[in-house]
Amino acid sequence: MPHLVIEYAKDLEPQLAPGQLIEKAFGGAVQSGLFTADDIKIRVRAYEDYQIGTGKNRFINITAHILSGRTVAQKSSLTDAILMQLKSLKLGAIELTVQVYNIERETYAKARF
Questions:
Q1: Which has the closest alpha carbon to 63: 21, 104, 31?
Q2: What is the pTM of this model?
Q3: Residue 73, by phi and psi: left (phi above 0), alpha (psi -120 to 50) or beta?
Q4: DSSP-derived pairing of the beta strands 59-67 and 95-103
């Protein structure tokens, strides 16, 4: 845990590779001190069609799904660390967002084959 889902505007790709987003999200999750590197799972999804308000502003949104039980301060340190990593990309006019969602431990299931 966690599962990080990165969504971004596809028109960022001329100046940003998806691998860079993975690297920054991973770095922020590790920097938070809440997870071991081996536990972090990341997926990336690019959007060609989107709308933000009345325009088509470029965006990066990261959603972190983590097991319940963390404090608000711990979750805040995670979002802050990831956001700081994204800001280091210096992409100019862009909307960056990060949010955390709890996965209830009692209903989470995992299997490996």
A1: 21
A2: 0.92
A3: alpha
A4: parallel
pLDDT digits (tens, 9 = 90+) for 14-71: 999 999 999 999 999 999 999 999 999 999 999 999 888 887 789 999 999 999 999 9
| Exposure on the CB side of residue 112, measured as CA atoms within 13 A | 0
d(CA 29, CA 62): 11
As a whole number of angstroms, the distance between CA 12 and CA 45 comes to 12
C-alpha closest to that of 40 among 29, 54, 51, 56: 29
94 vs 103: CA distance, rounded Å = 29
- Separation of alpha carbons 77 and 68, rounded Å: 15
